[in-house]
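Fill-in record for IS1380 family transposase.
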Amino acid sequence: HPLHHKVKRRRIKTIIQTVITMAGRLVRRSRQIWMKLTRRSGYSEPLLNIYIKWREGA
C-alpha cells in the first residue's frame, strides 16, 4: 500500500512508552533486582545494548 512505508526513525516518546509497556518481570536475587525481558520484543536487544554502553561510560 503506498501510504505505508518502512519506519526509519521513531520518536523518543514512542520508544519510552514501548519500553514501559514491555512484558517483563522483576527477579530478586543476591541482594540485587533484575528485570528479565522477553526476547520476542524487537526492543529487548537494542535496550540491552544501550544499557551496556551506558554502564561502561558511567
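KEY FINDING: The chain has one domain: 12-57.
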